[in-house]
Every structure is written in structure tokens, then in C-alpha cells.
Amino acid sequence: MKLLDALVEQRIAAVAARGEFDDLPGAGAPLPLDDDAWVPEEVRVANRILKNAGFVPPAVEQLRALRDLQTELNAVSDQATRCCLQARMLALDMALESLRGGPLVLPRDYCRRIAERLSERASNLNTADVGSR
Prior knowledge:
By secondary structure, this protein is mainly alpha-helical. The chain has a domain at 58-125. The chain contains 5 helices and no strands. It has helices at 2-18, 41-52, 58-75, 79-100, 108-131. Helix 3 (58-75) packs antiparallel against helix 4. It is elongated. The protein starts with a helix and ends with a helix. 7% of the residues are buried. The model has no long low-confidence stretch (mean pLDDT 78).
């Protein structure tokens, strides 16, 4: 195999020396890097098949959901609604960390329960605000 590789490299070098690569489309432009350049090679094919079928990895879905929640949070002024959104963001962030294998690995159900409790507290906070008015 090394002989074949050496032969291919020699032919490529000869063609480049004659300038036959100079007029190719995109010559001198940066190469478009694939979005999966940092994904392990053994996972790329499966990801590509899922992507072509319209599916995205769970981490990407969660990042999109976090972005949407952040946008919604920026538009809301009601404190109780903000607390609910922040609770959902926290749960999503914790689930995302567990997908990454980050320092905090918690089961999804646990993250969901935390979000529910934070939402309950936000609801109680909203009820207390209404009662004090």
C-alpha cells in the first residue's frame, strides 16, 4: 500500500508543478469545513444519515430550545413567567451537560422534577404577588 501511496503523491506533485490545479474552481479560497470535523469518525456516517433524514442529535435540539427560551425570557417582564422560563432553561442546561458527559451527570427525570419544583415556586410567588396587591 505504501508503494501505491507514494505513486499517487508523485503524480499529484507532478500535476501541481505543471500548474494544472491553478485554474480549478475555488482555487485560493478557503476550504469549506464540514460541521462534523470534530465528531469522531465512527459516528460521522450515522450522524450524516440522521441529518439527511431530517433528524438532529439531542444536544442540537436542546441548544435550539435553550436559544428559544432565552429569546422568550428577554421578551417577558412578568416575574413569575420569568421564573418558569428560567426553571425550564436550567433543566435543559442540566440535561445538555449530561449528554456532553460534563461534570454534572443527572438523569433526565431528575432534571424534569427540578424544573417542576421551580415552576411550582414561581407559581406560588405569582400567587403571593396577586394576594398582596
